[in-house]
């Protein structure tokens, strides 16, 4: 029966992580998967999470099913984190949220919801984007188109290219935007550019879908939501996929959410019913633990303060590493200019290294970088930066 089944290629990111695990080199360096690492190369559980888990262990009284859309108070805490508590979107009840297994789960629910309710609409992805985006939306049956995003010559945003592509979108098409810390480039629009994007979306009557997996890793929790809040103008509809893998370090608990902002409360109720229909036929209802942790931290003053401090520490360490990396690169006499890495945001940098250089780094030095040249900056440390620069010098000279 299974003889005809062909072996699928390994995943562009998680496949590399597996190869890293199997590499016996004691000096191996993993800059592939987007997981925060501390100074010692570990990914410890945040203190606020440990504290919330202690409380939950004492108070948990049942393992019965959650509702299809998850924990109501978690969903409400997610909306407040996205928009702030006083935002019109929140106070008029025109936004609805469903708890999902991770940000990927949110994207897939969004994809199924779009396929079922927006027949004929295309979904526009930035070029490049997270390699799992096309997988998810193709699996959901949503036709894909791409818009320019990265300008190779300037290592910056190709804003004109982006606008001119999106001007070709049809009314009702969906535009996927990275809310902050663009994955894989680390390049985000400026506030003025967000304004122009929001104008275009409004004018062309497009549906924005924000992938928001790194809130707090760019400049801060509310600063990173400024693009999203610019788009959420009066009457504007949108979808937002949240992930708490990175900013709560809850990777393996799979904690995310899909928020839909409708024109009014009646439409929001209908949208919620459709999202629940999609979920029921997929994973039925979400798991409790990770969402209960996030809800506990977000709704308790002292735990929330602790979280914001821990998140600021992660953000500051990454920014410090960007500077260290750029300084070390220029100190070791590499001709190529890598100074743009300090202008990029969040966990990732688009290094400009090509597939051949990336392959050489892996095969000759056990340094693991995604094929596109994307580097997880958080994987760099005082302990491995010299060896990394040595490798980059070798493959670029
Ligand atoms: C990444 O881009 O490395 C992360 O979002 C992890 C993943 O699932 O790919």
From TrEMBL:
Keywords linked to the UniProt accession: Aminotransferase, Pyridoxal phosphate, Transferase
One Pfam family linked to the record: Aminotran_1_2
EC number: 2.6.1.-
Any one GO molecular-function label of the UniProt entry: transaminase activity
Keyword Transport applies: no
Biological-process GO terms, alphabetical: amino acid metabolic process
UniProt keyword annotation of Cytoplasm present: no
Cofactor: pyridoxal 5'-phosphate
Domain Aminotransferase class I/classII large, residue spans: 27-392
Domain of life the protein comes from: Bacteria
InterPro entries: Aminotransferase_I/II_large, Asp_trans, NHTrfase_class1_PyrdxlP-BS, PyrdxlP-dep_Trfase, PyrdxlP-dep_Trfase_major, PyrdxlP-dep_Trfase_small
Enzyme class at the top of the EC tree: transferase
Subunit and partners: Homodimer.
Similarity field: Belongs to the class-I pyridoxal-phosphate-dependent aminotransferase family.
The protein, known as: Aminotransferase
Organism name: Bremerella alba
Gene: aspC_1
């Amino acid at each position: 029966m299974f003889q005809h089944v062909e072996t699928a290629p390994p995943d562009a990111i998680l496949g590399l992580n597996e190869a890293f695990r199997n590499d016996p080199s004691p000096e191996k360096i993993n800059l592939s998967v987007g997981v925060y690492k501390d100074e010692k190369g570990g990914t410890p559980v945040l203190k606020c999470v440990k504290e919330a888990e202690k409380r939950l262990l004492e108070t948990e009284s049942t393992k019965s099913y959650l509702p299809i859309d998850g924990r109501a108070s978690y969903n409400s805490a997610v909306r407040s984190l996205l928009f702030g508590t006083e935002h019109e979107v929140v106070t008029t009840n025109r936004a609805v949220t469903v708890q999902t297994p991770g940000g990927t789960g949110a994207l897939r629910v969004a994809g199924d919801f779009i396929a079922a309710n927006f027949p004929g609409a295309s979904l526009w992805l930035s070029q490049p984007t997270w390699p799992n985006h096309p997988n998810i939306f193709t699996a959901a049956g949503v036709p894909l188109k791409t818009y320019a995003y990265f300008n190779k010559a300037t290592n910056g945003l190709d804003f004109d290219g982006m606008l001119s592509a999106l001007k070709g979108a049809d009314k009702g098409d969906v535009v996927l935007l990275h809310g902050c810390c663009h994955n894989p480039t680390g390049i985000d629009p400026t506030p003025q550019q967000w304004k122009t994007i929001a104008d275009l979306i409004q004018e062309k009557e497009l549906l924005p879908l924000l992938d928001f997996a790194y809130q707090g890793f760019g400049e801060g929790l509310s600063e990173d939501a400024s693009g999203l809040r610019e788009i959420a103008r009066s009457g504007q509809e949108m979808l937002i996929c949240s992930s708490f893998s990175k900013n709560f370090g809850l990777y393996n608990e799979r904690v995310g959410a899909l928020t839909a902002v409708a024109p009014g409360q009646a439409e929001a109720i209908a949208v919620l019913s459709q999202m629940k229909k999609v979920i029921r036929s997929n994973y039925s209802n979400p798991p409790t633990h990770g969402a209960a942790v996030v809800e506990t931290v977000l709704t308790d003053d002292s735990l929330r303060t602790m979280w914001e401090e821990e998140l600021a520490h992660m953000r500051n360490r990454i920014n410090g590493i960007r500077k260290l990396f750029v300084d070390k690169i220029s100190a070791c006499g590499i001709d190529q200019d890598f100074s743009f890495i300090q202008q990029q945001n969040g966990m990732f940098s688009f290094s400009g290294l090509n597939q051949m250089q990336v392959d050489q780094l892996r095969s000759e030095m056990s340094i693991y970088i995604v094929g596109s040249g994307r580097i997880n900056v958080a994987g760099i440390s005082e302990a491995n930066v010299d060896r990394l620069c040595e490798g980059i010098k070798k493959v670029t000279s």
